């Protein structure tokens, strides 16, 4: 009989939390128990899971004592606040926040890219930033064949990247503008409907925003190339769900475009979307709800003999967050990397 | 008494045509007559100009005989069909279509960049592609100080770049989606509301679309650098008006970012929009209706010691088309480059 595991979702009510619930069911994760944790204000509510309506508990000091895996998606401060309790309880925390991503003792894992990194965990594994994950899934298969030397990325990021309320804000503002009214920004600093603006995360002294630096630093860590040259411009666009990216790659030597297409056509987590006749390439409306990162428009860069251009769209809530976290959990199961699983786990009473 | 000129607008009823009317009035262009030309189906209609309602005439063989300047914005096939008649009539055609842009005998002019090119005209001057103009206005002032070696651009292009009907399609689709209905693509091949997709112009054998090749080839011609290395990814976004671009620049040597900021702060046609404290940078909703190309987020490229990153938004109907054409007309006036103006021009009877 295969082992099964007790999983807790910390931040069960958020966009990623509910997607985690969907994925655990869809992928038949070997559960012996599922605990939904959230802030006190959500406690007592219930969320559907398979044929049940699971209660939400307020997170508390003993909440992790009977848990093997914690999927945390309640933001950096919540992850930081509970990490020690989770680790002390013997559970593994798969953390969707940015809190521990750059911690050298914490593996930062995209299962299609660096599954081997998970083995070194000391109780916490970090789930990378959504924009980073999508780009890494598309670029790493090429990098394996011929090292990438420099990446210039421009993103087209959907509203739901800033949460469910931001997605509502986009809809409300769009309706207001269509009615001839002025849009009222609340979540975003600027109107998002029928507009685009550079990603509004905090800017560093060099003028890069946090989102851009995540793409730079996390990719370096995941690829294991600390000095990989990466620059990015992250931009919000009025799309409800799924991020897109224009990615310019420079390699050590020319990369045959047909070979690149073949590699990406077989790469794990990638779906090639390239119909040159009908001008049909990856689009966020088609990436939404899909597991795969849609990749296409693979071109020889005409400005650089060792360059390639590609275009991708991926569901940032799914592969960019919840799916990647569940895949990490599956990896832990497959490789027997769940700490408390060393003791036999009984099905929840 | 200053000379004045007889101007015809060919394609007066289009988005660019009506903007031309607005600009000729706004900028007090020295008119001695203004003739509105369009296809037979618009003939007889009137368009407001200053305090008048000017009649629209169907274009015909003798339509240009009493005209000094033709501002053509009715598409490539119309421009090609009438160019000979216009030139034979002694008028100068400022053509907004792509028909003659790459013709070596036709100057391709952005007045802030290469005004000197206009002097060599033989009756036709081409107005560049909108995306090209916006980028050129922002990049050329830097290129003058230190030659740019390579440009990697990603565009965020509004619906109105595909015409007024495409803009309506965006609004209609947005309303449909907000009502829970499926969007119906008619002008664009894919839904544009709450979506993005690579620019749907024809693709060449290398996988570059026409819009991208315009940025490449036209910039080379305007800058006078036939082998300038440029790559671009052009993308439609659900914005009503004004295009944005993420532009990565590589120079012959390091370019001090403060110097770049100073140069662009004083560059003709550029308005610096950079409030790092409030994360306020160029946005299409603020660029709409403005003459200037809004430029900001000027950063040292952290992936390249000789690189800079910048972000821009500009009104593609105004500076990207109609304004640039009127500026070319003004340049012809200032430099006495209007052919029939060699004879005294009398005010229209």
The number of domains of chain A is: 2
CATH architecture of the largest domain in chain A: 2-Layer Sandwich
CATH third-level topology of the largest domain in chain A? Dihydrodipicolinate Reductase, domain 2
CATH superfamily of the largest domain in chain A: Dihydrodipicolinate Reductase, domain 2
Number of helices of chain A: 8
Give the largest chain-chain interface (CB within 8 Å): A-B, 57 and 57 residues
Oligomer: homodimer
Describe the largest sheet of chain A. 7 strands, mixed
Structural class of chain A: alpha/beta
Number of strands of chain A: 15
Q: Which runs of chain A of at least 5 residues are low in confidence (pLDDT < 50)?
A: 341-349
Coarse morphology of chain A: globular
- For the termini of chain A, the CA-CA separation is 18 Å
Strand and helix order of chain A: EHEEEEHEEHEHEHEEEHEHEEH
The level 1 CATH classification of the largest domain in chain A is Alpha Beta
